[in-house]
Design a protein that fits this description.
Keywords: Cell membrane, Membrane, Transmembrane, Transmembrane helix, Transport. The chain has 396 residues and is an all-alpha fold. The chain has 15 helices and no strands. The protein folds into two domains: 175 residues, Up-down Bundle (Growth Hormone, Chain: A), CATH 1.20.1250.20; 195 residues, Growth Hormone, Chain: A (Up-down Bundle), CATH 1.20.1250.20. It is 83% helix and 0% strand. α7 packs across α12. The two termini are 28 Å apart.
């Protein structure tokens, strides 16, 4: 990889590890210092809603303004908000929620800009870079809660904020030495006009529209696993906290394994087959869970089944995410990337709060029936995708 790619990787790794450790600490402190889970639920909902609303705006800015300056400004906002948190936390506890939203917004803007610049920076190593990025992202997601859990036992959250200030400050140095020369079209159009232009470009691309439709459906259905695994693990199968922790980690391990495989053996110009494989794996995983819940399983058997199911669901995500990301990098025009990336992300996320609510209610009844029904819907989605998506359309 070239030196610019290495600079970008180092920036993201250093910045992400500090942010994710501190985000874990925030969630822990909210749950620990409030008597009800409603505050934590509101915190998560505000983060999702703020992402959905802000991403299209960030997409317009990414296509219109100097990307390097936006990253530096975002990092400065992060550092300032974290420094203010240190004296304010003891007197204004709910600033932790405000801070969580601020960090989520700025990290979202930075992630979007990185996505829009990947092809320009990584050049011929783009496929390997996308896979490697997914690999370290999965690794950090796995390690950050472990590191955060250990650190919280010994130091206060204010010191963790200071640690995050340090990682953000170090990471910003790599941006100063990184050249971002993606060509952008400067226009005097209003934000509304820019948004409509990006929306129009997205809706003219039939391949993207089909994938977004499939992603909406699959994301909605797979959230039944996200909601259900903790409930089934603890309430239905009576797993210990250690067993539950291992089950939760298996999801990230699955993602990491496939991402690492694609970073060593880059995938090129393949989109339909990996997506079919991913949806097929999800169907098998959900169907297995639905059938398993028909029987009165022991804790050990339940633990093994849940571990395998969560692992294969984790395997399925990079199978579709990495080829899809590569396709978007190759086929979306440079001056539309920011808007298209942000719009697709916002659209796919729109049903997340609804799906969490729906499955949270349904799983209070027949869990087996819920997952068998979800499995049938995933199978129907796979059949529709296979019949409607022609390989010749993707190649063009």
């Amino acid at each position: 990889m070239n030196i610019r790619s290495i600079n970008l990787l180092l920036f993201e790794v250093i910045s992400s590890i500090g942010s994710k450790i501190f985000s874990f600490a925030c969630a822990f402190y909210i749950l620990q210092h409030t008597e009800t889970a409603s505050i934590y639920s509101i915190y998560l909902a505000l983060i999702v809603i703020s992402s959905i609303i802000s991403q299209p705006l960030f997409g317009i800015w990414t296509d219109k303004y100097n990307n390097k300056k936006i990253i530096i400004i975002s990092q400065i906002i992060n550092i300032t908000a974290l420094i203010l948190f240190i004296p304010l936390f003891n007197t204004y506890f709910y600033y932790i929620i405000v801070l969580g939203i601020i960090l989520n917004l700025t990290d979202g803007a930075i992630s979007l800009i990185v996505n829009a610049n990947i092809k320009n920076i990584s050049q011929d190593d783009m496929e390997r870079f996308v896979s490697l990025r997914q690999t370290y992202s999965s690794g950090i997601s796995f390690l950050a809660p472990i590191i955060g859990g250990v650190l919280i036992a010994f130091i206060s959250i204010q010191y963790l904020a200071l640690l995050n200030v340090l990682t953000e400050s170090i990471s910003i140095l790599f941006i100063f030495f990184l050249t971002m020369d993606r060509v952008m079209v400067t226009s005097e159009k209003s934000l509304t006009e820019d948004f409509k232009e990006g929306f129009s470009y997205l809706f003219k691309n039939k391949i993207l529209l089909k994938f977004i439709s499939i992603a909406l459906i699959i994301n909605f259905l797979i959230n039944s696993i996200v909601v259900g695994i903790p409930v089934i693990s603890i309430q239905t199968m009576k797993l210990s906290s250690q067993q539950f922790g291992i089950v939760e980690s298996s999801f990230t391990v699955g993602m990491f394994a496939v991402s690492l495989l694609f970073s060593v053996f880059p995938i090129k110009n393949k989109l339909k087959a990996p997506t079919q494989a991913a949806i097929g794996i999800q169907f098998i995983g959900v169907l297995t869970l639905g059938l398993a819940l028909l029987f009165n399983l022991t804790s050990t058997t339940g633990f093994i089944i849940l571990f395998v199911i969560y692992f294969v669901i984790g395997v399925s995500l990079p199978l579709v995410n990495i080829p899809y990301s590569i396709y978007m990098q190759n086929y979306i025009e440079e001056n539309y990337k920011g808007r298209v990336f942000s719009l697709t992300q916002s659209i796919v996320q729109t049903l997340t709060p609804l799906s969490l609510l729906v499955f949270g209610l349904l799983l209070n009844y027949s869990q087996s029936a819920v997952y068998l029904s979800v499995a049938i819907l995933i199978l129907l989605t796979l059949i529709y995708f296979s019949l409607s998506m022609k390989q010749s359309e993707i190649d063009n």
